[in-house]
């Protein structure tokens, strides 16, 4: 059975349909056995299909204002992080960079669908969860105290929140928080590690969703709303474990 790094060069031609029968069989066999690579390929195929379905609309006229704003914000963020990102890019495998670009660009184009589909919303937030932990958090080494996170949430979102006390009893270790671009605005992204595994809690202001739990890209996403705020907890753990974590943070984050 080939290893993940061995099928990396085959993923793009596999998704594009520009691959020989023997190589396609190699990728197929690997995806049947590898949950992580299957999730990545499924996500990239979804973006590929979306771009293909909308290619005429994207080529005809200017992009919608919200999309232009999102791209501009991404460009500014990239420029701000350029010195440190350049060092990371020099070391990162080409396949990792390609996957990250798919997550970022894919998120920019699916924003119109997030209002209609809970699954699409969860997929976009899961992409941000992966991006922040694999690139931004690992690159910048974010680690903030609870008081700093609460202060930043109050100033950035006018949200007088209080993080759960004694989070260590639930196996949670606070990493920090940052704003993330989503749809037509910005959401709060609070990052934890649960027994070492990445866990994200997103807060979407001025929106309400029905309670739900969906599996997307190999992750569990639990969704609930309080007033005019929607919360999404995302982790790549068992459903039962994710539900336990959600119950712990649910009452504290309002």
Fold and architecture overview:
The chain is α+β, with helices and mostly antiparallel strands. The chain is 55% helix and 20% strand. It contains ten helices and six strands; from the N terminus they run H-H-H-H-H-H-H-H-H-E-E-E-E-E-E-H. Strand 2 (185-194) and strand 3 (197-205) form a beta hairpin. The chain is elongated and about 55 Å long.
Give short descriptive properties of this protein.
254 residues; alpha+beta; Phosphorylase Kinase, domain 1; 2 domains; 6-stranded antiparallel β-sheet; 6 strands; 55% helix
Termini separation (Å)? 47 Å
Q: Provide the domain count.
A: 2
- Main sheet strand line-up: 1-2-3-6-5-4
List low-confidence stretches.
78-115
Rg over CA atoms: 19 Å
Strand content: 15-25%
Helix content: 40-55%
Give a topology summary:
Layout: H1 4-16, H2 21-33, H3 35-53, H4 55-59, H5 65-80, H6 82-91, H7 94-109, H8 118-140, H9 146-157, E1 172-182, E2 185-194, E3 197-205, E4 212-216, E5 219-226, E6 229-235, H10 239-250
Antiparallel strand pairs: 1-2, 2-3, 3-6, 4-5, 5-6
Helix pairs in contact: 1-2, 1-3, 2-3, 3-7, 7-8
């Amino acid at each position: 059975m080939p290893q993940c790094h061995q099928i990396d060069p085959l993923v793009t031609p596999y998704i594009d349909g520009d691959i020989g029968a023997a190589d396609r069989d190699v990728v197929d066999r690997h995806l049947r056995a590898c949950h992580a690579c299957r999730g990545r390929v499924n996500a990239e195929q979804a973006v590929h299909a979306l771009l293909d379905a909308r290619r005429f609309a994207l080529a005809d006229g200017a992009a919608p204002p919200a999309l232009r704003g999102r791209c501009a914000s991404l460009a500014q963020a990239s420029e701000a992080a350029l010195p440190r990102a350049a060092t990371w890019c020099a070391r990162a495998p080409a396949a990792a960079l390609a996957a990250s670009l798919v997550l970022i660009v894919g998120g920019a184009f699916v924003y119109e669908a997030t209002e209609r589909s809970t699954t699409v919303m969860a997929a976009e937030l899961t992409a941000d969860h992966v991006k922040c932990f694999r690139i931004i958090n690992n690159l910048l080494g974010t680690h903030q105290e609870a008081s700093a996170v609460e202060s930043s949430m109050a100033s950035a979102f006018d949200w007088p929140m209080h993080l759960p006390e004694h989070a260590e009893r639930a196996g949670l270790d606070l990493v920090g928080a940052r704003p993330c671009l989503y749809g037509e605005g910005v959401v709060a992204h609070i990052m934890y590690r649960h027994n070492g595994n990445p866990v994200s809690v997103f807060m979407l202001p001025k929106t309400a969703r029905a309670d739900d739990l969906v599996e997307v890209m190999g992750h569990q996403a639990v969704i609930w709303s309080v007033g005019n705020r929607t919360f999404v907890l995302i982790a790549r753990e068992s459903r039962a474990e994710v539900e336990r974590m959600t119950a712990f943070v649910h009452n504290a984050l309002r």
